[in-house]
Amino acid sequence: MLHINNLTSSIGEKTILSNIEVSFEDGKVYAIMGPNGSGKSTLAASIMGHPLYTLSDKSKIVFNGTEIHDEETHVRAKRGIFLSFQSPLTLSGVNVFQLLRVALDGAIEPLELKNKLKKTAAQLKVKEELLSRSLNDGFSGGEKKKMEILQAAIVEPSFLMLDEIDTGVDVDSLKTIAEFLTTMKNKNRTIVVITHYNRILKYLIPDEVLVIKDGKLATKGSAELAQKIESEGYSWIK
């Protein structure tokens, strides 16, 4: 479980989030929604410990009973927290196998890692040839997003945050991604999806929808809340 208490996050003198309090339980799917610039990505980055953001002295992030708000990003990652890139980076000359060998630091033998990559790629319907190419070099939007999830599946985080995983993804790929994330959820992992739209939530049903507006947690509810936002927008939320 991850619990956030009184989180206020700033960049320089500008406060982005104010007094956020929310809990994420194991084995559940959460959707974080809100207008552009409302602070959705800032919340994920603050949980991950991005150095660009400064938390107030009263801010607390507790993960599995341990306070982590003062820990560096790589320490949080080792604890099992993962954040996908909103715009996945291209790594010229480095393929996903090479990247994961470094990330895992020998935790998985090379042959086992290769086999696991191939199996997971097949489940995500990722072409095997992409595994040997420079990461994200010339990949389509859907291929890039799938590669982010593939990396997460290999690393096996217990708390997975996906920032706009549905952007630039066709319907078939969206369904494949949703099905795969559901299997991860069923392994008692927490899935947090940051999105503007209800598209992916039609296939990956959230246990709870959180709405960030003007830097605050404006409201929360069930999957029906996402459906209402799709039809009515955010103007009715105060």
TrEMBL record:
<dbReference type="GO" id="GO:0005524">
    <property type="term" value="F:ATP binding"/>
</dbReference>
<comment type="similarity">
    <text>Belongs to the ABC transporter superfamily. Ycf16 family.</text>
</comment>
<dbReference type="InterPro" id="IPR003439">
    <property type="entry name" value="ABC_transporter-like_ATP-bd"/>
</dbReference>
<dbReference type="InterPro" id="IPR017871">
    <property type="entry name" value="ABC_transporter-like_CS"/>
</dbReference>
<dbReference type="Pfam" id="PF00005">
    <property type="entry name" value="ABC_tran"/>
</dbReference>
<dbReference type="InterPro" id="IPR010230">
    <property type="entry name" value="FeS-cluster_ATPase_SufC"/>
</dbReference>
<dbReference type="InterPro" id="IPR003593">
    <property type="entry name" value="AAA+_ATPase"/>
</dbReference>
<dbReference type="GO" id="GO:0016887">
    <property type="term" value="F:ATP hydrolysis activity"/>
</dbReference>
<keyword id="KW-0067">ATP-binding</keyword>
<dbReference type="InterPro" id="IPR027417">
    <property type="entry name" value="P-loop_NTPase"/>
</dbReference>
<feature type="domain" description="ABC transporter">
    <location>
        <begin position="2"/>
        <end position="237"/>
    </location>
</feature>
<keyword id="KW-0547">Nucleotide-binding</keyword>
<protein>
    <submittedName>
        <fullName>Fe-S cluster assembly ATPase SufC</fullName>
    </submittedName>
</protein>
